[in-house]
Design brief:
single chain; 288 residues; alpha/beta; Rossmann fold; two-stranded antiparallel sheet; globular
Amino acid sequence: MVYDRGEIDKGVVLSQWMVDEWGDDIRKWLEYWALYPDAYLDAIHDDEEDKNFHLYPYQRVFLRAMARYKTVSITATRGTSKSFSIYLGGFLRCAFNPGLKMCIVADVKQTVITTAKAKFNEIFEHWPLLRFELKTRADDGEQGQKKSNDYYELLFKNGSILTVISKDNSRGLREHSIVYEESAKIDELSHNEILQPMMTIDRREPDGTLNDTAPHGQSVYITTASEKTCFMYSKLLEIIVNSVVKPNESFIMGRFSCPLFLRRKWMSVLESWEALKTRKRNRIASAE
């Protein structure tokens, strides 16, 4: 919202003259950040106050994929910040796409609600400016964060809604995008007959037009590895094929190995791992 001689809700002073003068540049930056959300995070991050935090390269790839592709599949080991990445990616998609309705679902209700509260608090610690994207009771008449034992919801000033919920409580919702956390635990019936049918309407721009380049009906699957007998393994194979046949719509990334992350600055974990192997060798030697 632009005031003639005042501050907008995010604390940046704008005038009609400034918008007319710099409107094209502002538009270009917004278009760039919408496709490169990690660059936006770099721009608003306080490197002096938060010196020890930075995004890993694979997190940047994932955030960009989530901003561009209709179908995204990520399979990664534990300790790769999967939950943090999807909540951050979902938040940025809602911030840059007015009126977007996104839902993050998981198999277990209490787990997904607890995780959501913790991860969004962590996100706001690293990027405090993102908190100003949410509604406030003082300015908008309602809180931007709604919590209960069944769901966690974020209401954005631009009309977007990000809902975190379990698959058992998702009936009746209408969404533009769905993120499946620990997707390997989602069964075929829930996926095909309850969750995917929620995306029946494409998101329209504020002027009512339909953006043909936007990832309408987006499905994001992120999980640790599981058995080949689960339903999501067949879905994984489908996405692999589509990433070849329709490379502009599908993106897949996986096969993260534990040694890779143990060698990347996590030396304390590596040392613990080596200690466990040494202890195991000593037990074998004692038994012999």
